[in-house]
């Protein structure tokens, strides 16, 4: 079992009322699954993804990741866990503006104590895999949206995470680029990487082996 969410509730207080973002979520994810999370805007999809990625806490329930009780871990321990095992792909890229493409790709490797030569080789491999060798010395602002997204995905993959969390991964891409990204995810999944994606697209969701539908913070 890669991860297990048990009776998860998350809420915000608004005008003395509890507004639930997630209600009684129970989810088990095995290694090697490819899961699509769907639902209308405001249904809690991104909240759930951020919670799984440990970027966001919750108010009630239990979360176990690789047998570690996430809900009881100290912040530092939790951060080490997600840096080690989880790769994030966001629609808004989250690239660092003052770093070149090459430096952005190298970032996650610095956390993991790879030697300089190893890092160089891994970055070169990713640049090659994504056909962005010619862009390596450019800054994010000099790239198109599609290229930024590719760099974001390359960065998520470079340190070989066990789990990839993708929030509308093809949101800013044209259909050809979007298809390439989904094919790449499929290939990674075949290689054993677990993927959880949030998507509005039926077509993208179909790449997954299981679809989770959310409505008003509940799984339906």
Describe the fold and architecture.
The structure is a single chain. The chain is α/β, with parallel strands linked by helices and 220 residues long. It has one domain: P-loop containing nucleotide triphosphate hydrolases (Rossmann fold), CATH 3.40.50. 35% of the residues lie in helices and 27% in strands. It contains seven helices and ten strands. The chain has a six-stranded mixed beta sheet, with helices on both faces. Helix 3 (101-111) crosses helix 4 (116-129). The longest helix has 16 residues, at 175-190. It is globular, with a radius of gyration of 18 Å. It starts with a strand and ends with a strand. This is ABC-type lipoprotein export system, ATPase component.
Mean pLDDT: 92
CATH topology: Rossmann fold
Structural class: alpha/beta
The CATH first-level class comes to Alpha Beta
**What is the CATH superfamily classification?**
P-loop containing nucleotide triphosphate hydrolases
**Helical stretch count?**
7
**CA-CA gap between termini:** 22 Å
Overall form: globular
Name the beta content range.
Answer: 25-35%
């Amino acid at each position: 079992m890669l991860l297990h969410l048990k009776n998860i509730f998350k809420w915000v207080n608004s005008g003395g009322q509890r507004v639930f973002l997630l209600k009684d979520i129970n989810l088990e994810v095995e290694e090697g699954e490819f899961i699509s999370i769907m639902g209308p805007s405001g249904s809690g999809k991104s909240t759930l993804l951020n919670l799984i990625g440990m970027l966001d806490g919750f108010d009630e329930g239990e979360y176990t990741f690789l047998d570690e009780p996430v809900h009881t871990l100290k912040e530092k321990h939790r951060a080490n866990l997600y840096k080690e095992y989880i790769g994030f792909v966001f629609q808004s890229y989250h690239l660092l503006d003052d770093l070149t493409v090459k430096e952005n790709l190298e970032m996650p490797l610095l956390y993991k104590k790879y030697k300089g030569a190893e890092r160089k080789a891994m970055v070169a491999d990713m640049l090659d895999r994504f056909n962005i060798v010619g862009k390596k010395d450019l800054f994010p602002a000099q790239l198109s949206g599609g290229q930024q997204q590719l760099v974001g995905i390359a960065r998520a993959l470079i340190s070989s995470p066990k789990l990839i969390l993708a929030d509308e991964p093809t949101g800013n891409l044209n259909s050809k680029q979007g298809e390439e990204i989904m094919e790449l995810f499929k290939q990674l999944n075949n290689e054993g990487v677990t993927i959880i994606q949030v998507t509005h697209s039926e077509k993208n969701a179909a790449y997954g082996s299981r679809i989770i539908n959310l409505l008003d913070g509940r799984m339906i």
